[in-house]
Structures are given as C-alpha cells and as structure tokens.
C-alpha cells in the first residue's frame, strides 16, 4: 500500500522548492522591495490554499449541499479575501505591484493543481471504500 504525503506537507514542499529555485535570481537581480513582494504573494497564496484544504476536510464527509457551500462558497470568500489582501498590500503597504501579483498568481496556479489532485484522491479513496 502506497503512503501518500499529506496535503499541508505538499504545500510546504512546493514553497520550499520555489524558495530554493527563486533564491538566486531574486537575490542577484531583484531589489529588496521585489523580494518582499514575492514573499508576501507566496504567503498570501499559501494561506489561501490552506484555508481551502480546511474547507475540504470539514465538508468532505458531509452532505453534498454542505460540501458545495463550504468548498465553492468558501472559494468565493477566499477570492474576495485575496483581492482585498492584494489591494491592501499594493495601496497601503506600497509593495511592488507586478512582483506581488505574479508571485500570487504563480503560487495560486500551482496550489490549485495540488488542491484538485487532493480532492480527486479523496473521491477515489471514498469510492474504493464504497465498492468493498
């Protein structure tokens, strides 16, 4: 039986690999302002995906209606929170807008793939349990 790495650990590994891969280019070619914006975008996106994970874990074994409300409704709330956080970091904290946005969207895309794979894995395990 194959042991799977937990979702939060996968998120941490993505963050670690990205930090290693981006460390030199950001240190060599980016300013401290850009480094701060990239880190803020990564942290904002990481918080978003971990909230999504919590919603999935909470709602997965509940009714279909509860699942849709928690996951899809939660996705809308999370998107609004991301937009508010992005706006606040640009307008109030005066972070580098391009670096922040690219970092946020880049991590968001990778985390979205992980989140979809996580849901698919949970559905697959649930369906195997119902067959036996």
Structural description of this entry:
Helices cover 86% and strands 0% of the residues. It is mainly α. It has a domain at 41-118. Helix 1 (7-29) packs antiparallel against helix 2 (32-59), helix 1 runs antiparallel to helix 4 (97-131) and helix 2 packs parallel to helix 4. The mean pLDDT is 94.
Please give the structural blueprint.
Layout: H1 7-29, H2 32-59, H3 64-91, H4 97-131
Helix pairs in contact: 1-2, 1-4, 2-3, 2-4
Describe the structure concisely for a colleague.
The protein has 132 residues and is mostly helical. Helices cover 86% and strands 0% of the residues.
Low-confidence stretches: none
Radius of gyration: 17 Å
The general outline is flat
Separation of termini? 16 Å
Largest sheet entry: none
Number of helices: 4
Proportion of helical residues: over 70%
Number of DSSP-assigned strands: 0
Succession of helices and strands: HHHH
The portion of residues forming beta strands comes to: under 5%
pLDDT average, as an integer? 94
- Overall structural class, as computed from helix and strand content, comes to mainly alpha
């Amino acid at each position: 039986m194959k042991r799977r790495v937990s979702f939060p650990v996968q998120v941490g590994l993505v963050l670690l690999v990205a930090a290693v891969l981006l460390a030199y280019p950001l240190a060599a070619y980016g300013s401290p302002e850009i480094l701060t914006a990239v880190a803020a975008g990564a942290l904002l996106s990481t918080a978003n995906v971990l909230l999504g994970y919590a919603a999935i874990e909470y709602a997965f074994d509940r009714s279909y209606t509860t699942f849709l409300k928690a996951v899809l409704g939660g996705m809308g709330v999370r998107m609004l929170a991301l937009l508010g956080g992005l706006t606040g970091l640009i307008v109030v904290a005066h972070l580098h807008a391009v670096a922040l946005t690219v970092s946020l969207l880049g991590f968001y895309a990778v985390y979205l793939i992980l989140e979809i794979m996580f849901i698919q894995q949970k559905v697959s395990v649930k369906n195997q349990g119902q067959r036996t």
